[in-house]
From TrEMBL, chain A:
Cross-referenced InterPro entries: Adaptor_comp_med_subunit, AP2_Mu_C_sf, AP_mu_sigma_su, Clathrin_mu, Longin-like_dom_sf, MHD
Subcellular location: Endomembrane system
Highest taxon of the lineage: Eukaryota
Pfam family, one: Clat_adaptor_s
Database matches in PROSITE patterns: MHD
Protein name: 23603_t:CDS:1
Species for this entry: Cetraspora pellucida
GO cellular component: clathrin adaptor complex; endomembrane system
Record keywords, A-Z: Membrane, Protein transport, Transport
UniProtKB/TrEMBL annotation, chain B:
Record's compositionally biased regions (Basic and acidic residues): 735-746
Gene Ontology CC annotations of this record: endomembrane system; membrane coat
Region annotated Disordered, chain positions: 267-297, 724-756
SUPFAM superfamilies recorded: ARM repeat
Compartment(s) of residence: Endomembrane system
Alphabetized UniProt keyword annotations: Membrane, Protein transport, Transport
A GO biological process held by the record: vesicle-mediated transport
Protein name as it appears in the record: 878_t:CDS:1
Protein family according to the UniProt entry: Belongs to the adaptor complexes large subunit family.
Main location as per UniProt: membrane
Composition skew (Acidic residues), residue ranges: 284-293, 747-756
PANTHER family: ADAPTOR COMPLEX SUBUNIT BETA FAMILY MEMBER
Superkingdom of the source species: Eukaryota
Length: 416, 756
């Protein structure tokens, strides 16, 4: 089981330490830092490092390392999943995860760790249940504590009598305006060959909900075309068997933000990607020429926004000279890559092009780097998944309902 | 704002400095200012005066002061400073009326109780009082903290508290009691018997909220008492879906071990070829998979065995990757092979998760693929490497690609792998191509051709690795490799990497019989550059010479050439090379008198003595020279890095690390004779479906509430029926019909088992 947790900042300094099964010497962290510094990139360090006594399991997110020494056999994923869950909860409590936010609220962090894990076994990990026991920091709390002056501490005694029968939902939620929003976010992961052929492509979708409903609503969400879903996973609140049998999502939602469902869709072969990148690169003597064009297809008439193309060049490249007909580009001399920021591409725009040449200190600079592109299409779900209706049972009010969809580039890579 | 903050902070600091000179009252005011402006940062101030201040704060009558002092202490703990000296002052506050203060005291207490056992005992009374509190959260917290104090003396008190709490009305308190069991066990292992009794009682608990923690305690305290599980097996299967995520993992871990001891192997004829064919048939009509039929027609499973598979299946849709992998573990180790395909898609889904989770999932997929590659073959594209993948991920991906390679997809894999050498992970890709070729001799030709092209790459590492892999492949087919070796020899002029050059010389020497014309010339060229070569290359050049000469012992030119090389080697800086030269000289040139005359006296003296002693043996050596130098060398077998992982249970830490982590228990073997299944018949206990609190995800819950039922209810009644406490009761009444059916089913089951 999980013995301890150390939270380390970017320089490897301990900012939080918590032991569930007796103390573990801090020297262990020094050993870890040694290993950490040996890697060229922090992301290349093996997630589980064996040492004679402990297995060092760690996750690296937002520049912070969450390190757990584990002495005995345990499911490896249980530890990793739990560490990620801690990070998620902290992010939810403090808005953003950063060294500063953790240091500012270290007392809350310790209280959370105390509630989330008991003797190395996960205890309460549902955000709703946690928030009932430990109040997240907010302006109002701070103001109250200031106003109350030096003599007293506002006491938050959770009302134990109304503990909810659903572990994920608070009891006694009340809103004056009842509303619920769904965000359907789809990410395209694709590898495209230099000649435009799709090597692999798939869509990972996520339905994110923001629920502000009073009482204990029981919701049923229908899709127009649930058949497109290839594989899916649900928040524990969703009734699995009901989906299996009737293809509807039936659930009593948690309060606040939560991930209702995530799914995977295999793009049919005939369907094209929303945009195509055509790179043409000629390596010459001591440099080379390049010509990159982007064409838009299949976006359902919607513009493509936040387009950013990153084109890495060989390490020996010293200078780049290029022109583009849309947006602007910069050459980053440290990473040796061209960042072409196109902003928004309207359908009626001319085909965006970036062409130019580069010089290199080497006779024939290395080629074959992978172009990555980032983009966003609002109000469009590439898989075609559509929400049909949302019904609410068990509560009398009529809530305001909203659905939004969005398609983003995930790991969208073009080989050259 | 920040300016204001810093100013205020500075002011606070100034005020603190003043504190030496002025009276207490002024300090209070100064801090008041400071507190209002700064954030928690000031808690990390460790100057000596601040430390002295903490003691005063802890003794203060004001909650806020205490709170401040405690926060400061905890900040010290974070900084790695030992603040155990404050223990007495902190313990005093354990009885504080303020819950916020108590929580912080607990954090401190749990950290230092081990070092101050006597003082920690002072707090016990407060906990015992809290155990009778009205609020279930307070009761639970008291038990949790008390059992967490690592002072062995209190173990009897903890045991008493556990016994008190295990009958608590609140499921949350009972859950905490279950969590306290392993803690109590570690404090005092002699309490084991009493704790097993507690676990036995708690196993009767019908709340899905509690059961996961009970099983966790079971797994830690008495994992071998599987006899306690018999009566609860069916209940555990049914409750699986309603337990919390972490509980599900523990329950599946237990049920896996239980099933391995109680049921028969579902794949009795463990013939892998037939399995492979069978499951391939599955893929062909994958679209029409009706999941439940397949369970029945493959093999007559015990109904309980089947129930476990059926009840764990929906959990493949869990958002928790550890749960999904646990189901995979159940299906991989317990299910008929024809059913195991159900786990592949969800596992692939996990690859979209965080890097670390991807790594573990890939390691497990690689392990499964060594035994059942067909599970992941349809998802080949998911294992294509992205340029942004971390090193450990791309290595595993390439390994999986080579493992799932078949005749039909190998061309695709090779095409994909051949893209990689342009990237910075070329070497591992080349090795993967090699593994493919070894695994599939039919494809070796195209692999070789692909690799030969890489010889002209500009990247030294790529060239070196390709030569090494080519060498390995050529060794596999000693008959017709002459053309390839000649091509390699041509590349010698531009290959500079020592290991690659050495490999080529070795190949030429080993197969010189097929290279009658070229080989001597290669030796000639090598002799010219000998002095400039690296040590490995020099050794192989000497070997090459020796091998050639053993084939053509009469060739005068060759003889001279070899002697020239040997003479160069004799004065080499590296003693290994000198030794090798001496050995081969003794072996090959020993009978040639010319040689001895030409040699210098120093070394030769020794040789002569040896020669006179062994001259009779030397002829035997001479005759067998060819067999000594050119014996058939076994081609090295390329093992995939995951070899050995398959001895571990899927999902375990040991599997990822490929060694046995302390506490790892291997899976019990299937029993050879079917154990009595009737032990699971739970007759006297009437827990069954009626009493068991229906959880949210259970079949009955979802299925038996047609949405129309809601609409028919008048609004008023609806509000009454659906308050959270009674939420489930309504459904139970509507379930009655179903329960009847199930009961009759069960009785018929019982009958059949009686007949047996």
């Amino acid at each position: 089981m999980i013995d301890s947790l150390f939270v380390l900042n970017a320089t490897g300094k301990i900012i939080i330490e918590k032991h569930w099964r007796g103390l573990i010497n801090r020297q262990l962290v020094e050993y870890f830092n040694d290993q950490f510094s040996k890697q060229s990139s922090p992301e290349d360090l093996l997630p589980i490092i064996p040492t004679p006594k402990y297995q060092l399991v760690h996750v690296y997110r937002s520049g912070l390392t969450f390190l757990s020494p584990v002495s005995n056999e345990v499911d490896a994923l249980l530890v990793l999943e739990f560490l990620h869950r801690i990070v998620d909860i902290l992010a939810e409590y403090f808005g953003e995860l950063a060294e500063l936010s953790i240091r500012d609220n270290f007392d809350i962090v310790y209280q959370l760790l105390e509630e989330m894990m008991d003797y190395g076994y996960p205890l309460t990990t549902e955000p709703n249940a946690l928030k009932e026991m430990i109040v997240p920091p907010n302006i109002i709390n701070k103001v109250i504590s200031q106003v109350a002056g030096v003599t007293s501490v506002v006491q938050h005694v959770p009302n134990g009598s109304t503990i909810s029968s659903f572990p994920w939902r608070k009891a006694g939620v009340k809103y004056t305006n009842n509303e619920i929003y769904f965000d359907v976010v789809e990410e395209i992961d694709a590898i495209v060959d230099s000649n435009g052929a799709i090597v692999s492509s798939e869509i990972h979708g996520l339905i994110q909900a923001n629920c502000r409903l009073s009482g204990m609503p029981d919701l049923t969400l229908n899709f127009v075309n649930p058949r497109v879903l290839d594989d899916y996973s649900f928040h524990p609140c969703v009734r699995y068997n009901k989906f299996e049998n009737e293809r509807v999502l039936s659930f009593v939602p948690p309060d606040g933000h939560f991930k209702l469902m995530s799914y995977r869709v295999n793009l049919p072969h005939h369907q094209s990607l929303p945009l195509y990148v055509k790179p043409q690169i000629h390596i010459g003597n001591g440099g080379g020429k390049f010509d990159i064009s982007i064409s838009i297809r299949n976006t359902d008439g919607k513009p493509v926004e936040n387009v950013l193309l990153v084109f890495p060049l060989a390490k020996s490249v010293s200078n780049v000279n290029a022109t583009c007909n849309l947006g602007s580009y910069i050459f980053d001399p440290v990473t040796k890559s061209i960042r072409w920021n196109l902003g928004k591409i309207e359908l009626k725009d001319r085909t965006p092009m970036l062409s130019g040449n580069f010089s290199s200190t080497e006779q024939t600079p290395e080629s074959g780097h992978t172009i990555t592109i980032d983009f966003l299409i609002n109000m469009h779900a590439i898989s075609g998944l559509k929400v049909d209706s949302l019904k609410i049972y068990n509560e009398a009010y009529k809530p305001y309902k909203g659905v939004r969809s969005m398609t983003k580039a995930g790991k969208f890579q073009i080989r050259t | 704002m920040s300016e204001y903050l810093s100013k205020a902070a500075a002011f606070a600091q100034n005020a603190a400095k003043l504190s030496k000179k002025v009276s207490e009252g002024i300090v209070e005011n100064a801090r008041e200012f400071g507190l209002e402006a700064t954030s928690s940062g000031h808690y990390f101030d460790t100057s000596e005066e601040k430390m002295r201040d903490i003691k005063r704060q802890l003794d203060s009558r004001h909650d806020r002061e205490k709170m401040d002092g405690l926060k400061r202490l905890i900040a010290m703990i974070s900084k790695g400073r030992d603040v155990s000296e404050f223990f007495p002052d902190v313990v005093k506050n354990v009885a504080s009326q303020n819950l916020e203060i108590r929580k912080l005291v607990y954090i401190y207490l749990l950290r230092y109780a081990e070092q101050e056992p006597d003082l920690a005992l002072l707090s016990i009374n407060t906990f015992q009082r809290d155990l009778t509190d009205q609020n279930q959260l307070i009761r639970a917290m008291a038990l949790r903290v008390m059992s967490g104090i690592r002072v062995p003396v209190i173990s009897p008190i903890v045991l008493l508290a556990i016994k008190k709490c295990m009958t608590d009305l609140s499921a949350y308190v009972r859950k905490t009691a279950a969590h306290a069991i392993p803690k109590c066990y570690s404090l005092d292992p002699s309490q084991k018997d009493a704790l097993v009794d507690v676990i036995t009682t708690l196993l009767n608990d019908n709340s899905p909220f509690t059961i996961g923690s009970v099983i966790t305690a079971f797994n830690e305290v008495c994992p071998d008492r599987l006899d306690l599980i018999h009566l609860h097996y069916r209940k555990l299967c049914r409750m699986l879906i309603d337990a919390d995520e972490w509980g599900q993992i523990a329950i599946m871990g237990l049920l896996l071990r239980y099933a391995r001891t109680q049921f028969l192997n579902p794949n009795p004829d463990n013939n892998r070829v037939s399995q492979k064919k069978k499951s391939k048939a599955f893929y062909s009509d994958e679209d029409s998979d009706d999941s439940d039929n397949s369970l029945d027609n493959s093999y007559a499973l015990d109904p309980d065995h089947e129930q476990l598979l059926r009840d764990s299946l929906p959990l493949l849709q869990s958002r928790n990757s550890a749960v999904v992998l646990s189901v995979a573990k159940i299906f991989y180790h317990l299910a008929p092979t024809a059913d195991a395909y159900k786990i592949s898609k969800p596992l692939i889904r996990l690859l979209h998760s965080h890097r670390e989770i991807q790594y573990v999932v890939l390691a497990n997929i690689a392990t499964m693929a060594t035994q059942r590659p067909y599970l992941f073959e349809p998802h080949l594209q998911q294992f294509f490497v992205r340029s942004t993948d971390a090193v450990f991920i791309r290595n595993l991906k390439m390994e999986i690609m080579t493992l799932v390679a078949t005749e039909s997809n190998i061309t695709g894999i090779l095409r994909e792998l051949q893209v990689y050498p342009n990237k910075d992970f070329a070497t591992s890709a080349i090795r993967a191509i090699g593994r493919c070729a070894i695994g599939m001799p039919d494809m070796a030709e195209s692999c070789l051709n692909g690799l030969m092209k890489l010889l002209w790459s500009k990247n030294d590492a790529v060239v070196a690795e390709s030569v090494v892999v080519i060498k390995r492949l050529l060794q596999l087919r000693p008959k017709d490799n002459a053309d390839m070796i000649i091509q390699l020899a041509k590349a010698l002029d531009h290959i500079t990497v020592p290991m690659a050059r050495a490999s080529i010389f070795w190949l030429v020497g080993q197969y010189s019989q097929n290279l009658e014309k070229v080989a001597p010339d290669i030796l000639r060229k090598a002799a010219k550059t000998f002095t400039a070569e690296a040590d490995v290359v020099k050794l192989q050049i000497i070997n090459l010479g020796a091998k050639l000469l053993s084939l053509h012992s009469t060739d005068h030119t060759l003889n001279l050439l070899f002697q020239y090389v040997l003479n160069l080697a004799r004065y080499d800086l590296n003693y290994d090379i000198r030794d090798r030269a001496r050995l081969l000289r003794g072996l090959i040139l020993i009978n040639e008198k010319k040689d001895t005359h030409m040699n210098n006296m120093g070394v030769e003296g020794v040789e002569e003595v040896m020669r006179s002693e062994e001259s009779s043996k030397s002829t035997i050596l001479m005759n067998n020279l060819k067999r000594i130098l050119l014996c058939e060398k076994e081609a090295p077998s390329e093992e995939s890095p995951s070899v050995g992982r398959d001895r571990f249970i899927i999902g375990s830490m040991s599997l990822v690390l490929n060694y046995s982590v302390p506490g790892y228990k291997s899976l019990p073997d299937w029993p050879t004779k079917k154990p009595d299944g009737s032990v699971r018949d739970n007759l006297d206990d009437t827990w069954n479906r009626n009493q068991y609190i229906k959880g949210f995800g259970s079949d009955s819950f979802g299925q038996f509430v047609p949405s129309s039922t809601y609409d028919k209810l008048p609004v008023k009644q609806r509000n009454e029926t659906y308050d959270s406490e009674n939420f489930y009761d309504f459904y139970e009444s509507s379930d009655d019909n179903k329960n009847h059916d199930e009961k009759t089913e069960e009785s018929s089951e019982a009958e059949t088992s009686e007949e047996e």
